[in-house]
Structure prediction request, 332 residues.
Amino acid sequence: MSGYSDLAMRRIARRLGAPYALNEVVLDKLVTQKGKTRQRILRVKDDDHPVGGQLMGAEPTRFAAAAADMVEAGYDVIDINFGCPVRKVLGRCRGGFHLSQPDVALEIVRRVCDAVGGRRPVTVKMRRGMDDTDQAQRDFFTILDGAFEIGAAAVTVHGRTVRQRYIGPSNWDFLARVKKHVGRRTILGSGDLFSAEACIRMMERTGVDGVTIARGSIGNPWIFAECRALYAGRPLPPPPSVHEQGRVIAGHFAEAVRVHGETRAGKIMRKFGIKYSEHHPCARQVRDAFIAVKSPPDFQAVLDRWYDPNTDWPPVQRRRDHGDLIAAGAAP
Prediction:
């Protein structure tokens, strides 16, 4: 969620039902090096709890130092990222690369747990291995079991391999196997969660203790309230009206301005607007309008034109998107 899960997005997600949020992943060295970036990362707001600080890096000692700083800053959980599949990250021995070196991965977990010293839970984020080889699977379970033995409170497992990136379905059968393997220890599932129905289906079919929604929440913060409703046995709420969409997007834009300043907020919100447009009954036209945004006034003009509450818009249809269809076919 690098570039997305900032304070503005987290605030909107919380307002719409997210019980817990993770900061976008940050490099350990950016936490420990003096400068404006460190100050921004370590500025935890009173209304941003519970929040997890998500760390990525290559060196166990630097991981530990960054974790200690984030605890002192007020993060409620320290999350270790062993799942990022981006090529640049892998080339620098970070993220998902650690799944190919269990000794280093477990040394990172050990150093972080020692640095945190029981003051905060430590969690780990993994994919189901570097690739589909038997060795990759053995490495996965070595890290999984070792992390729990060292003291990890929970592990999030994404059902794709690192080499797979985001191509093809997430393997929910593997998630079921992992949960059965660890027993009462906490496993959170990830991958192909683009609707509330998919989230509940993953929990029911794999037995995982919870889910983490990543890409499925970008431009769709309503997914959290929808998940809460279904989990509580209530009917799925109706899709957000155009007026409700405009209200939430305007709120998100206002939060982005408060967090980043108007100029930067305009650039950041353009990519969010493109994702928000998928809910609009005139999705293609709205997407094109957001793509053309070059300034904050342009963004406001899109809201005024395409989310006018006085316009008689066509009914909003709930999305049945490709990601949800993949998840349905991938589940056991």
Q: What stands out?
A: The first strand starts at residue 21 and ends at 22. The chain has two domains: 7-231, 242-306.
